[in-house]
Amino acid sequence: MSAQRAIRMTEVGPRDGLQNEPAAISTAAKIAFINALSKANYAEIEVTSFVRADRIAQLADAAEVMAGITRAAGTVYSVLVPNERGLDGALAAGAQKISVFVSASESFSQRNVNATIHECLEKLRPVVRRARAEKLPVRGYVSCVVKCPYDGAVSATQVGHVCAQLLEMGVTELDLGDTIGAAVPDDMDRLLAGLRSVAAPKEMTLHLHNTSGRAIAVAERAIDLGVVSFDCSAGGLGGCPYAPGSPGTVATEDMLELAARLGLATGVNAEQVRAATAQLRQDLALARA
Ligand code: MG
What we know:
The chain has 289 residues and is an alpha/beta fold. It has a single domain (8-288), classed as Alpha-Beta Barrel (TIM Barrel). Helices cover 43% and strands 16% of the residues. The protein is built from 11 helices and 10 strands. Strands 1-2-3-4-5-8-9-10 form an 8-stranded parallel β-barrel, surrounded by 8 helices. Strands 6-7 form a two-stranded antiparallel ribbon. The model is unreliable at 240-245 (pLDDT under 50). Magnesium ion (MG) is lined by residues 16, 207, 209, 238, 249.
């Protein structure tokens, strides 16, 4: 009997989703959301980001959230950190993994963080070194791997160049982001083929956005090509969950439906995800009112 094929699901709603919601919910509501998600048995939950409060006010309570949640055995609790100070916060909070980010597009990097790709990579180097010395795995987010809102198409060669430098400095997982949700399924063939010399599809995570309604079609092609790890956001949190053209990360519920259709195990309990999403929608509605 052969083992059922499986994909690994990382829930990024509490970080990526809430960061992009204009209304900030209370610390207690965030903790309740993450605790509800923890009952769904994810491989990983990205809890928050240790960023400066004046940059992202929605996540200013990162330490309180980390201290308040009840962790499930078997789930990795990770946090995003932009710099060494963020790493200090992550270590103090007992994060089991950190994420760092860089763009594959020069213009996006300049406009988004006012630094070149090279400058961003140099700033991350000591962060990754220290995290690895503390035995933490490090996810390296690479944004705009298909298209940049300013430069247009981004070549796989350029993406590979950034990925190779992240691996060289000690990053343990590459997470490729279609930041503006522009990808079509054929882009996965081009991208993954172009990255072959850097990393195999089964070693990468994909972070897809459903901006154009194609995230599931793109994910299905990526699975065909050997990708087994995906980011997802409960309820498609981050854009308006009900509006077509929502810029949110691909919804966890949609990814679970795809996995079920393809006969892939995820380990994630869809009922629990729906319960967590429903509860959060109520809290967000209250925060917006
Ligand atoms: Mg996202």
